[in-house]
Amino acid sequence: MNDSNARNIAVDILDETNRKDLRLNAVRDKIFSRQQLSRQVRAEVTNLIQQTTRWQGRLDYWLRSVSDRPLRKLQSRLLIILRLATYELLIDRINPDYAIIHSYVDLAGKRVGQRVKGLTNAILRKIAKTDPLAGPDDDATSELLASWNSIPNWLWVKWETRFGVAETQALCEYQNRIPALSIRRNATNISVKELIETLAGADLKIEPRPDSDLFFSITGRSLALFQHDLFRNGSVSVQDWAAGSVVDILDPQPGETILDLCAAPGTKTVYLAERTAGDPGSKIIACDSDPERIAKAMEDVKRHGFSKIIWKNCDVSTADLPLADAVLVDAPCTGTGVIRRKPDIKWRRSPGNIAEMVEIQSKILANAGRAVKSGGRLIYSTCSLEPEENWNVVESYLKFNPRFSIDKLDSLIPKEWITPNNTMETIPHRQGVDGIFAARLIAE
Q: What is the CATH number of domain 241-443?
């Protein structure tokens, strides 16, 4: 493997992501598409950018401890190079220190300028001598605790106020783990026995989830799943159990028209299609405002062979929506419940984003409610952990829309996921799934 090539590409991806405030994986995919790279180099680059982003706070904690100048005064590309090197020196720890330092000093000279080689060398030699286990005490300032736990200070303070220091640390620890690949079995295509036996033969370890025969965790050479026939023919889909349970809460019934709002990239839409596969009278209308994401969703739907899904490109907060028996609002949100899968999202959010999301969510929910038939169901869901985006949005909606009331979730999802308000709420480190909120409302 060409380590220097992977490191150079990682700098390009992280640099563009930071400068343009774009999604990390989107930038990665765009840069990958321009180059002929081996699978090995792609895997190495992906690991570097994901892990450096995941641990950015702790990497900066270590860098601040050895740097004579504030990190904010360093050239942004140099800081990216120092973070990558610190990750390899103190977390990855695969290559020899001298080789890592030499490579990154050379990279800094080429990508930033020869003048920074001495500074880079001095900082990285100090980093190499740092004890990676020596973190701050539990009574340290919130800034130090947030940095060590690799999370923005504003979010640390918010979670600490809600959960306390010890549980916030546990939540951050879980969110900083590399997630296992979660899959959903298409029950119409393959049995549990066939699934386990087939994937075992492909050198993939499959772990069932308690209380579910549809959702599984994959370990081992998980990337091999995407080349497997079971994935190509739609027998399995990548989806977290808690995220998929939002469809279980909707609980589609025979002959229903189902409206799926904010539907792209279509993972829940496909599950809805699977749940209604044997029902010729059902109809699924999927709406989203992003035509590119709709195009990708429609491409994925082809893999499953579903033809009953009708896609519409529209602004679901203002569009004239058709009447439906069940409406699913998978609302845009801050995404704080899926940080382990999207580590860049925590650095791209700010406190003001919550209020912005609440305004958008409230408009979408208000418009969605108008499309629900009498006796129908309205499901509101986010992948956020923040009460402002979850129960508060639902509670506010119910105050001004008396024809709706909260419906019970008994038997639809695990009991430990159900709150006293009869909504679904999963906290990642408690249940071992993504952080998902969902409420099921019934119309008079």
A: 3.40.50.150
User: Among the options 172, 262, 287, 383, which is catalytic?
Assistant: 383
Residues 361 and 74: their CA atoms lie apart, in Å, by 38
Q: What digits encode the pLDDT tens for the residues 359-370?
A: 999 999 999 999
Distance CA 259, CA 242 (A): 20
- Which pLDDT belongs to residue 372? 98
**CA distances (Å), 442 to each of 67, 251, 326, in order?**
58, 13, 9
- 262 catalytic, yes or no? no
pTM exceeds 0.90, yes or no: yes
Domain ranges of the chain: 3-134, 137-170, 181-238, 241-443
What is the CATH T-level fold of the domain 3-134, as seen in this structure?
A: N-utilizing Substance Protein B Homolog; Chain A (1.10.940)
Q: Domain 181-238 is classified in which CATH homologous superfamily?
A: Sun protein; domain 3 (3.30.70.1170)
Task: Quick: pLDDT tens for 259-283.
Answer: 999 999 999 999 999 999 989 999 9
